[in-house]
Amino acid sequence: MILFCIICLVVFLVLFITDVLANINVWFSFILSLILTATPLIICLLQFLKTRKTNYLVIGILAIIAFLFVLFIFLTPEAGIPP
Q1: Under 8 Å between Cβ of 38 and 12
Q2: Is the distance from CB of 30 to CB of 6 less than 8 angstroms?
Q3: Residue 25 Cα distances to 14, 22, 70, angstroms
């Protein structure tokens, strides 16, 4: 499970850095970014509450930061999505 979470976050990071998300429809990129950041967030937090392993907590914190970053970037007026 932790490998899946890391892969989702790395895929989001690669898509964001290579400007793939900027070249497609803003709604599609917003939903794709939310899926790629919210999935590891939910999985890691549930696994941390179940097993109490700090690995899940660290990845969960990184997923929270990525999720908040997505919300901040896409919900600014310049992005084209009305808040």
Answers
A1: no
A2: no
A3: 17, 8, 15
